[in-house]
Every structure is written in structure tokens, then in C-alpha cells.
């Protein structure tokens, strides 16, 4: 077994529906059914009204780039040596929550502030599917 | 709010050499720094009854140091969880512990083999659990990456640029050239800065602090006791610790933080200045947490030295040099002296207020600020002589 792999997300009791969703190519976000507030990352209770009542709603997958970086130096080198340069961004989804992901499908230096992006689903390691983002068509 | 103005003082300071490879366990580093701080104060180690440290990555527990020092009654041996954010928190907590009667003479220390031992950002487990399941699989793993994200947001919002960051790196290296303890003493120019390679855009190599082995310690005691010790006391005027809402679940996830151009400093500034009874205009010298060049800008803005968005131009103006209006990081900071998780800032502030800094001494320094932290939470302290 290769000692070095990209980190693989490990679903837990709170996050399992999110990762089940990505495997089905859906971006599901947890929603408080008491006050309606969306919350990400997933957790047991609402930080706004403290209700435990929640469900999952599929969002549009569209959003805008809040901030981004271009990673040039691979850490660990064994894992990311072939990947650099790559873009990591904070993405504000249109529905109001913020996520961390990669911007793919364009030159790393073509990313701009507030650039409209949309989700794409990419097979990752360990059978997981990662939600990534590309410039909106 | 911290309400112990001038009741407690730092009476002693001590540190090891700062190196890339100490060649010795962290415990030995901690003991050396603590012994030197006690000796500097003129306090018998047997009279130490409190030890406080903080840890993230490489560290050694306070109780282990108490044991190694042979302290007969360590009534208060406490370890805070935290990285650079906690450097002033532990010193303020020492005052609180003495006030409560839990201890009388408290050693605060940070010890780490941060280069030869556990390297921050050296990688993560291949299984991303908890909050890291939402960050690490996308290759967002190291502190330079996290902080570069904040810097980019400030650039988007205010036009902060590379040359402004470069002035910070060049200025601190110039200070380090006058500091025999500094690990990097060779002066650099703006051209050197611009030519240094990108690690994670917008950060170049010279935006990023050193990885270091070493330890430093201070002895905190009551103001009355301190007056009878070897050095003139340096009094703790005030301090604060904390951050805003949505700090996240670990030191750098910050997914829900509302504004990445504005860090913890903006949230604790009011408590800091109110507790000390002074304001930014009264500070003669400031030792500001510089894990990255950019963290200086958010803290200058957050603590009220300049308005939001003006940190970059302020640094480029020369104001932060030794002969400027606000001399910063006179020892070279974490960028050029060493990265002992910000605790070396406290020692430099004490030495400036004692007038012990030789060629880099800020003449007439009476009030100093030390800060610790760069992102969602942190601590700061105002000291006077």
C-alpha cells in the first residue's frame, strides 16, 4: 500500500449525507427545519436557533469566488508534486454558505475575484467523490 | 476584561539558542530557558510554584518541566491548547493565577523543536476526519496556504500588493541584522524579496517565517516582589484574548469566518486598550505576530494603528522601521529571528523596555505592545517600564 495518498474524507454521523450526495452527483447542504438556516459544515444543531431538527436540500452548485490561492510548492511533495500548480478557493454558494474547493477547468492564473463558478463532481480516492468548481459556462 | 493593571510584572527572561537543529529533546530546551529566566530575575528555582505553557505540534508539558527543575511545590502547572495565538494568553493567565492565590512566581514558557522535530504543515494523515474532511482533500493543508487565502482577500478588497509585503520582510531582516540571536541576519533588498520564489501565491518564500528549534521563558510575579528582584520590573498594563464569532473548529479552517481581510485583532482591540488605559498612539515599540508578512497588516488595522485598508501603505511608508513612527519587530520577528510560536516577541518587548537591546534599541521606549495570532483568535498585551 502506498504510504502517501491525498487525504481521503472520512464521513461521520453529521457529514455522511453530504458525501452520499456527492457520490450521487448532488450538492446537498444541511438545512435547519425550524428556522431555515443552511449550515456548512454539517453538525447536530443549528448555531442560529439551536434546534436539532434538520434535513438536506440540494443547492444549485453555483457560486462565486470569495478568495483563492495558487499552490506552487507541494506539501507533502510525494502527494502533490504532480498536482502543482493548483488553485484552492473559498466559494460562496448562491444559497449563502461558503465552501473550500479547487477551481479546475481554467488556467490557474485566470481565476478572479467574484468569478462565477459551478460545481463539477470528480472521483477521488477511497471511493469518495469530491465537489470541485469550474468557471460558469 | 483584564483588570489587573500594573499589579503584576515580568521580572525575568531567558531563552536557548535558536537553531535549525537543537540536537536535544524539547524538555531540555524548556528547562534551559526556564532556568535562565529564573536566574535573570534572581529567583531561586525552589520558589517557583507555577508553570504555564501552550502547545500545538511539538511541545513538552509544564508538569514535566516542573519535575525536571525539581520544583518542590508546583501548585499550578497548566498547558493551554494553542499555537501562536496563546503567547500572551499564558502570560496574562500567570497574573490571574497569582491574583487568585494559586501561585506566587510563575514561569511561562514555549519550547519546540519546530524544525528538527514536528514541522507544522509538514503533512497530514491520509484520512481527513472532522473539519479537515472539508479542507484537506482539496490540498488545503498548510499554514502558508491558509494565510495566503486571507492575504488574497485583503488584496481584493483594498489593493494591498507585493511591494507592501516586501517592505515588511526587508524591514524585519534589517532589524535582525543587529540581533546576534537572529537565525537570519543577512540583509535583503526589495529585489531579493521580489525574486524569491512563490510558495503559495500570493506568498513568496520571504513572506513566510522560519522553522526553528528553541525555547523561551519569562518569570511573572507580583509588582511588589518584582521591585526587589535583579532587574527593573516590566509591568503588565493590560491584555486581551479572543476572537469573533464563527472562529471555526481548528486554527485554520475559517470556513465560516465573515471577513477574511480582518482578523482577531479587530475583535479584542477595545478590551486591550481599555484594560491598559492607553491607546495605539501611546505605543513606543510593537512586537507583532508575523508568522507571515501579511499578518502584520491585519493586526495594525485591527488594533487601530491605521484604518482598515491602510496597513499596506503604512508599512511601505517606512513607518515601521526603527526610526519610523511605530518601530515593529525590532528583533527581526518570526520572519528573521526565530519562530518560537510568538513567545520570543514577549522577550523582545521586555528587553526593549529595559533598554537592553544595544544597536537596535528604540530610544526612550516606555510602552510596548506584544501580539500573538494571525487568524480567527489571538492575544495581545501592553507592557510598560
Summed up, what is this model?
Chain A is mainly β.
Give a verbal description of the structure.
The complex is a heterodimer of chains A (137) and B (385). Chain A is built from 2 helices and 9 strands, in the order βαββββαββββ. Chain A is mainly beta. A 5-stranded antiparallel β-sheet of chain A has the order 7-6-5-8-9. The mean pLDDT of chain A is 94. Chain B is built from 12 helices and 12 strands. In chain B, the strands form 2 sheets. In chain B, strands 3-2-4-8-1-9-12-11-10 form a 9-stranded mixed β-sheet. In chain B, strands 6-7 form a two-stranded antiparallel sheet. At the A-B interface, strand 1, strand 5, strand 6 and strand 7 of A face strand 5, helix 4 and strand 6 of B.
Task: Please supply descriptive tags for the structure shown above.
heterodimer; A: 137 residues; mainly beta; five-stranded antiparallel beta sheet; three-stranded antiparallel beta sheet; 2 helices; 9 strands; B: 385 residues; alpha/beta; nine-stranded mixed beta sheet; 12 helices; 19% strand; globular
Helix/strand layout:
The complex is a heterodimer of chains A (137) and B (385).
Chain A: E1 8-9, H1 16-23, E2 28-32, E3 38-39, E4 54-58, E5 62-71, H2 77-80, E6 86-93, E7 98-102, E8 116-123, E9 129-135
Antiparallel strand pairs in A: 2-3, 2-4, 5-6, 5-8, 6-7, 8-9
Chain B: E1 8-15, H1 26-41, E2 50-55, H2 62-69, E3 76-81, H3 87-100, E4 105-113, E5 127-128, H4 143-158, H5 162-176, H6 190-195, E6 198-201, E7 203-204, E8 213-222, H7 223-227, E9 234-243, H8 265-276, E10 285-287, H9 293-302, H10 311-316, H11 333-336, H12 343-354, E11 367-372, E12 377-384
Parallel strand pairs in B: 2-3, 2-4, 10-11
Antiparallel strand pairs in B: 1-8, 1-9, 4-8, 6-7, 9-12, 11-12
Helix pairs in contact in B: 1-2, 8-9
Amino acid at each position: 500500500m502506498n504510504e502517501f495518498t491525498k487525504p481521503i474524507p472520512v464521513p461521520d454521523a453529521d457529514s455522511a449525507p453530504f458525501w452520499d450526495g456527492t457520490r450521487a452527483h448532488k450538492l446537498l447542504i444541511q438545512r435547519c427545519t425550524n428556522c431555515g438556516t443552511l449550515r456548512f459544515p454539517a453538525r447536530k444543531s443549528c448555531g442560529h436557533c439551536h434546534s436539532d431538527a434538520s434535513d438536506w436540500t440540494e443547492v444549485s452548485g453555483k457560486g462565486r469566488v470569495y478568495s483563492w490561492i495558487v499552490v506552487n510548492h507541494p506539501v507533502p511533495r510525494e502527494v502533490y508534486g504532480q498536482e502543482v500548480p493548483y488553485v484552492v478557493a473559498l466559494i460562496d454558494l448562491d444559497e449563502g454558505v461558503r465552501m473550500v474547493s479547487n477551481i479546475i477547468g481554467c488556467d490557474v492564473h485566470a481565476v478572479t475575484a467574484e468569478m462565477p463558478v459551478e460545481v463539477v463532481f470528480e472521483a477521488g480516492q477511497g471511493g469518495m467523490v469530491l465537489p470541485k468548481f469550474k468557471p460558469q459556462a | 476584561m483584564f483588570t489587573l493593571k500594573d499589579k503584576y510584572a515580568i521580572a525575568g527572561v531567558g531563552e536557548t539558542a535558536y537553531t535549525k537543529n537543537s540536537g536535544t529533546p524539547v524538555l531540555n530546551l524548556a528547562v534551559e530557558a526556564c532556568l535562565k529566566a529564573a536566574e535573570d530575575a534572581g529567583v531561586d528555582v525552589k520558589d517557583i510554584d507555577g508553570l504555564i505553557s501552550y502547545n500545538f505540534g511539538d511541545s513538552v508539558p509544564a508538569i514535566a518541566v516542573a519535575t525536571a527543575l525539581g520544583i518542590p511545590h508546583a501548585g499550578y502547572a497548566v498547558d493551554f491548547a494553542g499555537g501562536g495565538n496563546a503567547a500572551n494568553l499564558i502570560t496574562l493567565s500567570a497574573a490571574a493565577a497569582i491574583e487568585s492565590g494559586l501561585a506566587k512566581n510563575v514561569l511561562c514558557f514555549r519550547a519546540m523543536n519546530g524544525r528538527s522535530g514536528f514541522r507544522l504543515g509538514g503533512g497530514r494523515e491520509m484520512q481527513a476526519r472532522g473539519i479537515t474532511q472539508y479542507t484537506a482533500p482539496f490540498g488545503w493543508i498548510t499554514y502558508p496556504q491558509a494565510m495566503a487565502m486571507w492575504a488574497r482577500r485583503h488584496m481584493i478588497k483594498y489593493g494591498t500588493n507585493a511591494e507592501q509585503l516586501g517592505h515588511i520582510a526587508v524591514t524585519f531582516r534589517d532589524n535582525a541584522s543587529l540581533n546576534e540571536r537572529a537565525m537570519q541576519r543577512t540583509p535583503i533588498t526589495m529585489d531579493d524579496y521580489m525574486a524569491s520564489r512563490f510558495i503559495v501565491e500570493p506568498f513568496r518564500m520571504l513572506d513566510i517565517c522560519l522553522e526553528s528549534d528553541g525555547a523561551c521563558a519569562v518569570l511573572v510575579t507580583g509588582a511588589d516582589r518584582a521591585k526587589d528582584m535583579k532587574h527593573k520590573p516590566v509591568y503588565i498594563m493590560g491584555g486581551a484574548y479572543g476572537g469573533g464569532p464563527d472562529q471555526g473548529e481548528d486554527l485554520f479552517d475559517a470556513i465560516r469566518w465573515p471577513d477574511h481581510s480582518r482578523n482577531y485583532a479587530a475583535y479584542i482591540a477595545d478590551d486591550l486598550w481599555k484594560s491598559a488605559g492607553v491607546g495605539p498612539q501611546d505605543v513606543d515599540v510593537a512586537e507583532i505576530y508575523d508568522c507571515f508578512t501579511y499578518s502584520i497588516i491585519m493586526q495594525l488595522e485591527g488594533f487601530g494603528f491605521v484604518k482598515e485598508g491602510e496597513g499596506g501603505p503604512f508599512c511601505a511608508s517606512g513607518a515601521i522601521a526603527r526610526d519610523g513612527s511605530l518601530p515593529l519587530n525590532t528583533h527581526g520577528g518570526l520572519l528573521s529571528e526565530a519562530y518560537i510560536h510568538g513567545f520570543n516577541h514577549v522577550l523582545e518587548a521586555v528587553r526593549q523596555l529595559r533598554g537592553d537591546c544595544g544597536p537596535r534599541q528604540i530610544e526612550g521606549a516606555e510602552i510596548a505592545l506584544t501580539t500573538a495570532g494571525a487568524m480567527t483568535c489571538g492575544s495581545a498585551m501592553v507592557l510598560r517600564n
